[in-house]
Amino acid sequence: MAVVMRRDLRALADREHDLVIVGGGIYGVATAWDAAQRGLAVALVEREDFGAGVSWNSLKTIHGGLRYLQGADFARLRESVRERRALLRIAPQLVRPLPFLVPTYGHGRVGREALALGLAVNDRISHDRNEGLPETHHIPRGRILSRREALERLPGVPVRGLSGAGLWYDAQVASSERLTLAFVHAAAGAGAVVANHVEGVGFLKTAGRIAGLRLHDTLTGHELEARARMVLNCAGPGVDALLAEAGIRRRHAPLLRAWNLVFARTPAVPFAVGARREGRFLFLVPWRERTMVGTAYAPAEAPAEGAIAAFRDAALQAFPWAGLEGAPVVLVHEGLVPGRGGARGLSTRPRLHDHQAEDGIAGLVTDQGVKYTTARGVAEKAVDLVLHRLGRPETPCRTMETPLPRAQGLEGSLEAQTLEAMREEMAVTLADAVLRRLDLGSAGPAPEPDLDLVARTMAADLGWDVEREKAERRALAKRYPAA
């Protein structure tokens, strides 16, 4: 039976919840599903739309953790393998294996021999990577290609010093927005109260502990309260601002702005390709008849326009054989991610803070994640902690094996899909529908006739006047690069 997601703000305010989660990115929605499935009364609020931040703005890769071999971080590799396997199992319609190929040059640390050793170790450590998966979703062993094989697969790749290529497999999510939404559906189906476009602006307190949230409905301007025995802060780049409302002055790692570029270019090859550029790897990824390149990072406060132009130039230089010259960038996936204090790189570990133990403030936990792949596993740990603080018995987590509902997306005519998106999936803005409900504008601007139909359908159903419809179109247009 299909679960209908209803934006019921009265249900948020009229009852006391065991757990209120602030932040509807992949970490928040995965935690909501797990907690509700384990019997907690859960509420989830998101100030924009579910998965509208970094969860949507990603390279769509589900990583098995091969890169952690460089630092001999075998625990992180094992965690990534486990979580990749979980997503392949619970959302097979959306998550599928994807080959990755990296040309090798010379014989140093990034040469053929070093990569051969790394792939062999990776295969050994990930020996159970296909356990419980259908054969169609198995992750094959990695291997080294000869120079001739590399040139056959990558005609046009620079040949000077080319010694071969490394080939391994990870996974790709065809639609991260639909996968994130599937977690929301699952949470609602397990009894969670979920609402988008509701911002957590402060805390309710009683007897020295957190007792819920003060909320702001960004669509109507109304204020409301949600009472709860525990609050989980999953606000992504906004975690520190929300903590300040609780009197906790903590500065997490500096934020970095991350970009992935979507080119209007049919993929030159059916696999991902890596190339080293300015000390780090960029990857070219085939995705939904487009070519994506990522990921570039800059300090959050750096001007975006010049950085994106420089990144485009770097992409053209890294992949001169891919035919990207002259291809327009139709979408820029952009989001704020945690960096590593005092360093250029990304934070590599999620942070789960029990503020009762760390700051003497009961009723509050903060979860700052680092990558999409491991969100389900971190959510499991967060729920374990919440159960402990609530004095509840340990209940086993079942999200590693339970299939996600509605992961296949919407069907029928575009008008029917739009109506379903509004009435059953909580699409309340044009961007909600076009970017994260319909297979229409998430890989570049929607065709104008289709956009007209969606806008008219939403305006008629939601009672928008002409000015509101124009405002919705303008807000959506800002998501795409200027022509």
Structure description:
- With 483 residues, this protein is of the alpha/beta class.
- It is 33% helix and 26% strand.
- It starts with 8 loop residues before the first helix and ends in a 6-residue tail after the last helix.
- The chain has three domains: 9-55 and 177-252 and 347-390, 3-Layer(bba) Sandwich (FAD/NAD(P)-binding domain), CATH 3.50.50; 91-170 and 254-338, 2-Layer Sandwich (D-Amino Acid Oxidase, Chain A, domain 2); 414-477.
- Strands 3, 4, 5, 6, 11, 12, 13, 14 and 15 form a nine-stranded mixed beta sheet that branches. Strands 1, 2, 7, 8, 9, 10, 16 and 17 form an eight-stranded mixed beta sheet that branches.
- It has 14 helices and 17 strands.
- Helix 2 runs parallel beside helix 6 (176-189) and helix 11 (414-425) packs across helix 13.
